[in-house]
């Protein structure tokens, strides 16, 4: 999860997030190069004495500053489209979880386990124990296995919400009357936090998401039914 004074992105816990971090660094290097080039041109303009002010035609220069931005856009667009298609792939998921947004809590349904349904509310400050995180911990966590493809079916019962877990690279809108889906495969166990990322009313900031990812062997023993 994020910590105070953090500058970069959270550590990746899924292959998609790893690809997003690589693309972020790739785009950032291109931005640095563009900024350096523009600042260098400004510096030359301000410090170099103009010796010829009658030149009004420079075909070579115009060709370069027309083609170069197009090449830069291609270098950014190709990896971006690749990641976009990767996020839409659904490769035979092992589990399907349905998440329903409400004002202001989440309902989860384990469709592969006899329709197990439970609500997940934020823990009030009076109920927090030592080590719990204020505004992020919930009474019922979503327990899922690692190294298994999981499909999330996301919708809403009232207004627009957004189910987002940054460390997994997930952010999917919950829309009333529409069922969106996203898939992910966690690579390591742990507890990961997210929040509703769509302004949905007065208590929008009190809709945390907590995923507890455990080894598949432990999950198959039935810990999900202890919620």
Automatic annotation (TrEMBL):
GO terms for biological process: ATP synthesis coupled electron transport. It is a multi-pass membrane protein. InterPro entries: CcO_II, CcO_II-like_C, CcO_II_C, Copper_CuA, Cupredoxin, Cyt_c_oxidase_su2, Cyt_c_oxidase_su2_TM_dom, Cyt_c_oxidase_su2_TM_sf. It comes from Homo sapiens neanderthalensis (Neanderthal). This is Cytochrome c oxidase subunit 2. Keywords: Copper, Electron transport, Magnesium, Membrane, Metal-binding, Mitochondrion, Mitochondrion inner membrane, Respiratory chain, Translocase, Transmembrane, Transmembrane helix, Transport. The chain crosses the membrane at residues 27-46, 66-85. Residues 1-91 form the Cytochrome oxidase subunit II transmembrane region profile domain. Pfam families: COX2, COX2_TM. PANTHER family: CYTOCHROME C OXIDASE SUBUNIT 2, CYTOCHROME C OXIDASE, SUBUNIT II. Residues 92-225 form the Cytochrome oxidase subunit II copper A binding domain. Its cofactor is Cu cation. It is found in: Mitochondrion inner membrane. It catalyses: 4 Fe(II)-[cytochrome c] + O2 + 8 H(+)(in) = 4 Fe(III)-[cytochrome c] + 2 H2O + 4 H(+)(out). Component of the cytochrome c oxidase, the last enzyme in the mitochondrial electron transport chain which drives oxidative phosphorylation. The respiratory chain contains 3 multisubunit complexes succinate dehydrogenase (complex II, CII), ubiquinol-cytochrome c oxidoreductase (cytochrome b-c1 complex, complex III, CIII) and cytochrome c oxidase (complex IV, CIV), that cooperate to transfer electrons derived from NADH and succinate to molecular oxygen, creating an electrochemical gradient over the inner membrane that drives transmembrane transport and the ATP synthase. NCBIfam families: CoxB. Binds a copper A center. One of its GO terms (molecular function) is oxidoreductase activity. Belongs to the cytochrome c oxidase subunit 2 family. The keyword 4Fe-4S does not apply. It comes from the Eukaryota. GO terms for cellular component: mitochondrial inner membrane.
């Amino acid at each position: 999860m994020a910590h105070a004074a953090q500058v970069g992105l959270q550590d990746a816990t899924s292959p998609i997030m790893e690809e997003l971090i690589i693309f972020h660094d790739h785009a950032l290097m291109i931005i640095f190069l563009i900024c350096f080039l523009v600042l260098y041109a400004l510096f030359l303009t301000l410090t170099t004495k103009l010796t010829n002010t009658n030149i009004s035609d420079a075909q070579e220069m115009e060709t370069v500053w027309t083609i170069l931005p197009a090449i830069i856009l291609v270098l950014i667009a190709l990896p971006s489209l690749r990641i976009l298609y990767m996020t839409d792939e659904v490769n035979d998921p092992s589990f399907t979880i349905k998440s329903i947004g409400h004002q202001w809590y989440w309902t989860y349904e384990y469709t592969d386990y006899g329709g197990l349904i439970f609500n997940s509310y934020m823990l009030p400050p009076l109920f927090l124990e030592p080590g719990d995180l204020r505004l992020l911990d919930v009474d019922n966590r979503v327990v899922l296995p690692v190294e298994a493809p999981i499909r999330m079916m996301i919708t809403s019962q009232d207004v627009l919400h957004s189910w987002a877990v940054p460390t997994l690279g997930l952010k999917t809108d919950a829309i009333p009357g529409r069922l969106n889906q996203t898939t992910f495969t966690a690579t390591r166990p742990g507890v990961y936090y997210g929040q509703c990322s769509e302004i949905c009313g007065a208590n929008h900031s009190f809709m945390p998401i907590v995923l507890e990812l455990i080894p598949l062997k432990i999950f198959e023993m039935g810990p999900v039914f202890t919620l």
